[in-house]
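If I may wish for something, please sit down with the protein I am sending here and say whether tokens and residues agree:
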Amino acid sequence: MATEATTESSVAEQRLALYQQQHERTRLLYTMPEHERPTYLVQTLKTQFVEYQQYQLAEQLDKRGLIDTAPLARLWQQLHVVDDIIADIIRHMPAQTPAGWQFSVQDGSNPLQLPTVGKLKQPKPVLDQASLVSYVLGHFGVSSFTYDRAYYIGHVVGYLFGCYFCAHLSVGYSVSPLGAQMIGGYEYASLSTPHMVRLLQGLDGYCKKRVYQLAVICARLSVYATDKRIEKMLIAEVNDFDKKLQQQHLDALLLQGIMPDSNDSTPLF
């Protein structure tokens, strides 16, 4: 029991340190003089995103041309639109006290690819700012993933983004408010459902649509979507010949009583 308590305390400390690091990074970005602020930072960071690395792997594996790579390649080339949409959302979103939510999906995975802390149900660690989604959410709040669930503290647009992202990928998910004191040392509000409704009513339709566009871009480029494309390649490799035709050839040989010697390297058909 003492070891478990120590581990939980260590994870809580790591999570708090991660949140403070994320918060400070965003604060510095938005308080520096505009002429010094990096232009289209997302393009600079692209190569370190797990989504981009998985996309490159899928491209290398696609020997049969099963993936329509042109739209994906165009999205990666035009990734600066992510920064444009984020800036537009920030201009339109109302001020709000940070609130906390937790997201989880059925298999306990991390489809948002948020930075991981502590033990994981599926051992696939993700570093801080090593994913496109964590970069996006970093503009609206702080986030992490532990064991089988994601934690997000920030503006309600981040909550909306997570919902739109999972829905676009048809990933079954659940989201609930973070209870008070669940994340010690970091201030946030734990919201009731009526309060959530009021917050969402405070967002204008334009802002919600821009959040949706941002979520769709990230979902299309996600590791989850790319993994589905790689699964199609696996199925294609298993089924790369006409099985019905091979059965007919086999039956013809069996009728003739002809089967090649086991040491014979001559092709069957």
